[in-house]
Amino acid sequence: MSQHVSTSAVEVISGPSFRAAAPSAADLDAFRAKLLTEYSHALWDYWLSKRTDDGIPFRSEIQPAEMKEMLPYLLLWERVSEAATNRIRLAGTALVEALLQNPAQKLTRDVFPAAWEAALRKRAGDFYDRRCPQVFRFSMAPFSRSHVSIEFLALPLRRDADIADMGIGIAFRLPQANAGAAVL
């Protein structure tokens, strides 16, 4: 698997569905093995630890104080079904810097490049309805950083009941040969 995404490509990996029943330990481990950054591994492990027997975690179970090292790279959003997009609720400081703006309270279609938004929209059914975690690998070329690619791990959340209507994700620079500190 290539660790660098070309400027025009968007790589997407779907994880196992949490809709009907909890995936097997082997399926969870296989998905984790596809994650390339330490921060994706950390958020995945944290998210799994917050799951309940009946599905994905509730938003209220996610505690920022338990994720201090990840906070600069985190994104929290909610589904806006009628607009077929998402509203960003919170963005970490590293993401604000990488996106060249604070995206909080903005729609993803107004913040992300068209190719990114199209990839998110294409996978929305899997993400929200089937409750499948997603990994997106994007080039930062739209932000004048064509030499940088990121891994974005997106994990479904619910506010209440049985509806997945939110998400938490982490974006971090993909490792490259001879790379220094991994920052966005």
Topology:
Elements: E1 11-14, H1 25-33, H2 38-50, E2 74-80, E3 85-91, H3 93-99, H4 108-111, H5 114-122, H6 124-129, E4 134-140, E5 145-158, E6 164-173
Antiparallel strand pairs: 1-4, 2-3, 2-6, 4-5, 5-6
Major beta sheet, strand line-up:
1-4-5-6-2-3
Percent of residues in helices comes to 25-40%
Examine the coordinates and then state which fold CATH places here, giving the name of the CATH topology.
Beta-Lactamase
Specify the biggest β-sheet. 6 strands, antiparallel
Give the class from helix and strand content and strand pairing.
alpha+beta
Just name the CATH architecture: 2-Layer Sandwich
The counted number of beta strands is 6
Beta-strand percent range: 25-35%
Low-confidence stretches: 1-8, 177-184
Distance between the termini: 21 Å
Task: Write down the overall mean pLDDT.
Answer: 88
